[in-house]
Design goal:
The structure is a homodimer of 322-residue chains.
Chain A lengths: L1 H19 L5 H11 L6 H12 L5 H26 L3 E2 L2 E2 L1 H5 L1 H19 L4 H27 L4 H27 L3 H28 L2 H4 L5 H4 L18 H9 L10 H12 L1 H20 L6 H15 L3
Antiparallel strand pairs in A: 1-2
Chain lengths: 322, 322
């Protein structure tokens, strides 16, 4: 029963993630388990597992380590992101650096990355070349984002480049590798990869929208953080003059709260202006468009419970509130 | 001419390191090139190249990416170490985080690690499993060191474990992989791996001694840094009461310079006491012992210019002043 394969597979991935970070060095094991059990959505390993099943794969043992590796890449970057962003909470739990300090957080991120490498090693060159490229692009995306935020020069094109590199690329890679494990049908592999790439774009745009209009409690993290750091959804709209894409204007706002209208919190003020500017609606339209592309790519994928699940994921990603 | 193979190989490794970090993201390329051209000793890629040649390998193209990957692992960890140690100079040049800031330094280290992965991907499972394990142990060694320094509980056993994990393991892995590329003779592979493991231990002990008695200018970095951070050579001696293995006592010393003997610099004071304690001599004896083991492992390796080079390296590592 294929539906059982999906839930059994996801449980096996969860198990493999935790087993992978067994270490004699207590702090590495504790910190790794802390972040791995903090309730991630596991959407990236789902890409790998569902693409594998949708492409005809039937042996969970074949795909589980690969799917776990994909989630491990994401987890490693979260740990390092939280250091760079000075975030104190993530998914409602304290971040690693806020508990264990920056040195151990940095090392834990490195450690998780070595676990990606260990999980992937048995798969051979074709898969490792794809995965290594995705890892490299992910770091390039994070760096481009940090550079754009710093220079205040983020615009629509750079925003698209950032979300493609830092998010969509790993989604695509997960599905491509999962499909390649199951089939030699290139068109099928490419359809699943295109689906996942566009789902990744949708996911990130929605994430950035939620950073502005979401509920901090439901999200388990502070909202407005991306805004504070001069990046995020604002750049997808054309009304950039209203946004915080410009780090300098954020600094100014912080230094000089707008006394005229009585709003003392510059982030709240920016979020308000952003909502009023129409940028959210533009971003929303873009998310709908990339979601449509994801659905279109599924058309030629043979019907299966896994394909149904992939189709449902588009709606879930588009409509999620946290 | 095999000697030409050595120097041609080392040049090709250098070239490959620089080419690997080509990126559209300027800061990643600049920062990576900055650290890669800062005059590293390249002893780890030498392990891979010389073991390959000593085991009968003749095709440089086969071993160069692997040797470059080994140096890339080391380089990635240097970038992250410098962040954690707050080091401002490395090999006489400014550190990445001191030029580009912590965020970009952290990302550059991550980026270099993805390049390890890219360089290794084509080699297939056997090699990648070995390399992934070495990377994981390296991070464990760094973490154990940081944890021991923090708790002040570093002793001789933990010191040995640290230098085995963080240094000797990568030396061993480099030689093992290089040899495995050239031969199926297990005994030969193991001899070269044992040689490199012991050379790695020797290298690290000497490094730690130089941290105490070396010349800052020749080393291109401040001396006493390891001491300040409660780790290093002191732990190899039995006179731990004199050392700075205890972070708390370092803090005390910093807060209350020893006014009685007029020494205001607590690090200089600790270094002086350490030199007088005999710990350096004990560490020196241990380095001589591990160097002997490295030489012994070479005995059954067939004579070749590469083997001669490996033998010479033992003396160079043992006698180096910087």
């Amino acid at each position: 029963m294929p539906n059982d394969l999906i839930s059994t597979g996801m449980k096996a991935i969860e198990q493999m993630l935790l087993v992978s970070v067994d270490s004699d060095i207590d702090v590495l094991q504790s910190a790794s388990q802390h972040i791995l059990t903090s309730g991630g959505k596991r959407i990236r390993p789902q890409m790998a597992l569902l693409a594998y099943l949708a492409a005809g794969g039937e042996d969970l043992e074949q795909v589980v380590p690969l799917a776990a590796a994909v989630e491990m890449v994401h987890t490693a970057t979260l740990v390092h992101d939280d250091i760079n962003d000075h975030s104190l909470t993530r998914r409602g739990k304290a971040t690693i650096h806020s508990i264990w300090g920056r040195t151990f957080a940095l090392l834990t991120g490195d450690y998780l990355f070595t676990k990606v490498y260990e999980l992937m090693a048995p798969y051979g060159p074709a898969f490792n070349i794809i995965m290594a490229g995705a890892c490299s692009r992910l770091v390039e995306g994070e760096t481009l984002q940090a550079a754009a935020a710093k220079s205040g020069s983020i615009d629509r094109d750079i925003y698209k480049q950032i979300i493609s590199l830092k998010t969509a690329s790993l989604f695509e890679t997960a599905a491509r590798m999962g499909a390649l494990l199951a089939t030699t049908d290139e068109a099928l592999v490419n359809n699943l990869a295109t689906y996942a790439y566009n789902l990744g774009l949708t996911f990130q745009i929605v994430d950035d929208i939620l950073d502005v209009i979401g509920d901090a409690e439901a999200l388990g993290k502070p909202v407005g953080l991306d805004l504070l750091q001069g990046r995020g959804v604002l750049a997808v709209g054309k009304h950039q003059q209203v946004g915080a894409g410009d780090g300098a204007s954020v600094a100014t706002a912080v230094a000089e709260p707008d006394a005229a209208n009585g709003v003392a919190d510059p982030i709240a003020e920016m979020m308000l202006r952003l909502r009023e500017s129409g940028a959210i609606e533009i971003a929303r339209l873009q998310a709908v468009e990339t979601a449509d592309r994801a659905r279109a790519a599924l058309k030629d994928v043979p019907r299966s419970p896994a394909r149904s699940e992939l189709a449902q994921l588009v709606d879930l990603v588009l409509e999620r509130q946290s």
